[in-house]
Amino acid sequence: MKNAKTLVIQRQWCKGCGVCVALCPKEVLAIDAEDKAYPGSLENCIYCGLCELRCPDLAIEVQDARPEAAAKRGAGSGKDTAREAV
Ligand code: SF4
Ligand code: SF4
Questions:
Q1: Three-state DSSP class for 67?
Q2: Residue having the nearest C-alpha atom to atom 2 of ligand 1
Q3: Which structural domain, as residue segments, surrounds residue 31?
Q4: Ligand 1 pocket member 24 (CB < 6 A)
Q5: Would you say residue 57 lies in a domain?
Q6: Residue 60 pLDDT level (bands cut at 50, 70, 90)
Q7: Which of 35, 56, 76, 84 could connect to 16 by a Cys-Cys bridge, CB 3.0–4.6 Å?
Q8: Tell me: the pLDDT tens digits for 44-59?
Q9: Residue 47: CA atoms inside 13 Å, Cβ hemisphere, count?
Q10: pLDDT in tens, 18-43
């Protein structure tokens, strides 16, 4: 597997404040036309977690991308995990 982590953005929670865009050390993130964060340069992400730590709305998260971890998360959570990238 190429990467064991993934970045998940909950668009419904993102208010487009740009905090994550400004803080990301690798310039991975940008704001789209709908004022939502998206990982425009995901290939540069080092999964440092700074965006997750600083997002005021808990809208961005670094997650374990391994299938067994995804299965655990998905089981009965009912959470909308609209993925921006895998
Ligand atoms: S910091 Fe959070 S709310 Fe602000 S743009 Fe980034 S993901 Fe959206
Ligand atoms: S995990 Fe780190 S490198 Fe990746 S988008 Fe967030 S702040 Fe940027």
A1: helix
A2: 55
A3: 5-74
A4: no
A5: yes
A6: very high
A7: 35
A8: 999 999 999 999 999 9
A9: 13
A10: 999 999 999 999 999 999 999 999 99
Cα–Cα dist 73/2, whole Å: 21
Residue 55 inside a domain? The answer is yes
CATH classification at residue 22:
3.30.70.20
Cα dihedral across residues 73, 62, 57, 31: positive or negative: negative
Asked whether residue 63 is domain-assigned, the answer is: yes
User: What's the total number of domains in the chain?
Assistant: 1
Q: Is 57 in the pocket of ligand 1 (CB under 6 A)?
A: yes
Cβ of residue 42 lying under 6 Å from some atom of ligand 2: no
